[in-house]
Every structure is written in structure tokens, then in C-alpha cells.
């Protein structure tokens, strides 16, 4: 059993970070040599040159050949200086993540080691016991070991895409620096094996090629995410990952004469509509030629989106898309929930319907008042508009307008409402063109 670790290092690799505790009491010479090499950035940008699945990952030779490397004395004094390993009966390769010094034989057959070390990628590798010198244990970063264990390698065990030590941070070092040791001001920026000419895929190279359009979309998504996070921090959004509802459609390019009830009648054939509001100018109540339609189900919104694209409504071809606005969600969050929230937003007196649509129009009461004034006496036919709106259901009110014969263009449209409910948008366009006395044959050829 190894003694308590008295030193630790953080190794940052291209596939993740690893924290290693070192056995300074059992292996003082080995750990001292390792720590001082780390301190002078000897291992920075070294490549893992031998990776065996469920066995080990070896590194520590700057030339990545498995034949080089030197101890700290060799770094300070020059040459390939070696030292004698410290074999301990209680130190074995029992657990995955065991850090061990690679041991070789010199010309005299003596065991020596220098700077190369490896990390085991499996438990109970007894074959390595008494052959190599364990001097530490990985305590954090086992997910990095999993990634190391899964890399693709060539016939010699070197990964096709370089796995490199990017940086080493000495967390604890109980040993004094040897005489003459000078820590470089900056770590190296060029891999030590760059001069060998061995071509490998760079450790930071993306293997999945993407066109410029995909990259641009990723940049936009990143910018949008950053903006949303900023809005969340300043309190303008309830949370950064908020998404627009999928049951609300945005309709634009409307004719200014198109009203809420007309648009709702047209789209109601696809499902139950919770709200339908043409957005109007706050000052004069005129249509801004776009609207929001909220369905009770997402499927109904999808069907309306596909069927109503470029359909003629009041002689204008409309454009339909899914709404990107989160104003409804945001308004509910800012104003609170339930009655209390509606009171704070001044919507309690307007009823549930007004509260539901409050974020879609500019000052509902003012717009409604101006809309009533804009209806001519001839179109009202001397009727009390407010009484009709307040005391009749929507269908009764429309029937009465149809019976009076006022606004014949809209009335004829509503007369055919029941027969048109089973038609798709193409039949609906044909019907509108036929109603306007257009030649059906010319229309069909234009469609083709």
C-alpha cells in the first residue's frame, strides 16, 4: 500500500485534464525527477506515442519515438542522463490510472529510467509489476482516461490524431530545486517533435468538415445564446433558454382592411383558435398588416402553416411563419401569475380574453374605440355596434351582417363558410378568384 501522497500535478491534455497524486515517500528520487521536469515545461506539447486499448498510454519522450528522454540532471547538465528506478514491493499496477515510470535496460543490463512514463487504462495489470516503477495515481480525470482508451491508433500504437500534453501545473512540490534550475518565462509553443516530419492530424483539428454556411449558423447561434444570457442577467428574460411557443403563427402582408374576425374565420378551419389579433397602430388604430394567431394545439398551427402560405386574403397574398416572439411568455413572467399578475398589468377589468391578447396589440381600449369610430353609419346600418358586439355571440353577429346585405364581398364569403370548411387552401383560392369574376381557365394556367 502506497503512503500518503505529498505532491500533486495537473496535466492538461488535448482530450481532458488529469490530476495525479505522487508517492514522494516511497519514491523520492522518481517523484523529484518528475516534478522538476514538469516545472521546466519538459512535458509540454509532448505527444502520447504509444496507446494500447485497456492497457496503457505512454508519453514523456519529446521526439515521440519511445527511444528518447532524459532526467532533470540531463536537462541541467546536458546529455541523456538516466537514474536507477525505485522498485517497491507494495507498489503495484492494481488500479486503473496508476502512473508508472517506464524502465529499460542499459548496456550493462541494469534497469534505468529517465522521463518516459505511462498511465494504466485498466485494473490489475500484474504483468507490469516489478518491471516498471509506479510513482503516482490518477485521482481526477477518469473520463479523460476513457477518451484515451478509445482513440484510433496505427500499427505502432500512435494515435492518428495527436493526443498531446498541452500544459502541466505543479500543484504541490515538497522538494527543493536543484542548483542551476531556471524556470522558463513562457512555456514552449512548438511541439518538440515538429522537426521529425511525421505527419499526424493536429490535436485541435476538427475531423468533421463543415461548409461556411454551417459555421456561420454556429456563430449566429453562439451570438444569440450570449445575447439571451445577457438579457437573463439584466432581468429582461426569465431564463436564457426560453423558446417561442410552437402553437402561434405570425401572418404578414395582410390587406389593411382585413379584420381580426375575418382572419380568425379563415384560419379556424384548421383547429380551435385561442386568439387572433391584427396588430394596429396605437395612435390611429390602422392595421400594421401583420397578425398573430394562437391555436390550442401545435398540430393545428402546423397544418395552417403549410396550407395557408401565399393564399389570397382580401386580394393580398399572405406570408405565414411560426412566431419567434416570446412576449407572451415574458409578459406572464414579468407581471406575475394569475389574478395578481393581471391586476398589476391593468388587465383584470378587461376580462380573460383581453388578458390573453394584451401583449399582441397596442392599447386595446383605444384601438377598439377608434375602430368603432372608423365604421361608417352606412355599414353599421343604424345599429348599435357596441350592443351587437357585447350581447350577441360571434356567429349571430356575423349572420345578422350577412342578412343585411352590407359589405357584400365579405358577406358572400361568409355565406359559403360551411361548404368551404372541407376544402383545402387551393380550393379556397379558386373560390375567391371565381367570386371576383376571373376566368377559371386563365387562373389554372397561371397556377401551372
Tag the structure with descriptive keywords.
alpha+beta, 17 helices, disordered N terminus, four-stranded antiparallel β-sheet, eight-stranded antiparallel β-sheet, 16 strands, Alpha-Beta Plaits, Cyclophilin, 448 residues
Describe this structure in words.
InterPro entries: CRIP, Cyclophilin-like_dom_sf, Cyclophilin-type_PPIase_dom, Cyclophilin_PPIL4, Nucleotide-bd_a/b_plait_sf, RBD_domain_sf, RRM_dom. It holds the Pfam family RRM_1. Keywords: Isomerase, Nucleus, RNA-binding, Rotamase. Strands 3-4-8-5-9-2-1-10 form an eight-stranded antiparallel sheet. It is built from 17 helices and 16 strands. It has two domains: 7-181, Beta Barrel (Cyclophilin); 231-374, Alpha-Beta Plaits (2-Layer Sandwich). The radius of gyration is 38 Å and the shape is elongated. The protein is α+β, with helices and mostly antiparallel strands and 448 residues long. Helix 13 packs across helix 14 (408-415).
